[in-house]
Amino acid sequence: MIDENSVIKSACDIAGITAPEDLTSELYNGVTALDAYKMDAQAALALHPWSFAQSLVLLNRRREAPITGYAYIHQIPTENLIIATDKITDIPSQPDRAFTDYVKYGSKIYSNQEKLYAVIRTEVGPHLWNPLFVSAVATGLAAKLVLSIAADIKTFQTLDRLAYGDTREERRGGMIRAAINADQFTKPNKSMRMGNNPLTAAYLS
Fold first, then answer.
1. Which parts of the chain are beta strand (E)?
2. Cα 186-187-193 angle, rounded to 5 deg
3. How far, in Å, are 78, 81, 88 from residue 45 at the CA level?
4. What domain of life does the native source organism fall in (predicted)?
5. If the chain, 205 residues long, is cut into consecutive pieces of 10 residues, what is the mean pLDDT of each piece?
């Protein structure tokens, strides 16, 4: 099973440096490699609503009375592993439905809806990543390691561009673009779902 050690080793192979045997010490830059891995993985997960990192959760309703004119307060999870809240919904069985009649202050949702759900993106481990995402993160990590360990700016620029594209693409180009495209193919096409497809509807009527 692929884990953080596998990604770091792959990055070191790409960078042409010795992979650390112990990530808890600075022997062979173990701590440096682990810190760089965590930062690069978090940044890559923040680039796109990856399906492999999403979960549907029921939001906890808080007991205190709102002071904004709304009836209820719901709490968005605040654990360190939360990357983003991708959607708020009141009907989780309708995947395209987004609930928007609310205001958000910090991690609290104020609304008149008694029960709310959220699609949250979490910091999942490499064993859940798609292979193209693994390759992109490993290449981006290789760039960071080349810069921090070998101070090789030219190789850093080459590998970083390979992983995330040039500055005009806002870090959504290169190998990560291929991963984004592959992830989008895993999601059902909204216009072709059975209930929305006029050809299917006509056939079944």
1. 54-58, 60-61, 72-75, 82-89, 102-105, 108-111, 117-122
2. 130
3. 17, 11, 19
4. Bacteria
5. 94 93 81 94 97 96 88 91 94 91 94 96 96 98 93 95 96 97 84 51 45
Give domain status of residue 204, yes or no: no
* Domain of residue 152, residue span: 4-49+130-186
Indicate if 31 and 44 belong to the same structural domain. Answer: yes
Q: How far apart are the first and last CA of the chain?
A: 47
* Bridge partner residues of 61 (DSSP): 74
> 201 lies in a domain?
no
Question: Pick from 122, 157, 176: which residue ends a domain?
Answer: 122
| pTM (two decimals) | 0.86
Length of the chain: 205
Residues 135 and 94 in one domain: no
The token duo for 111 is 């609304």
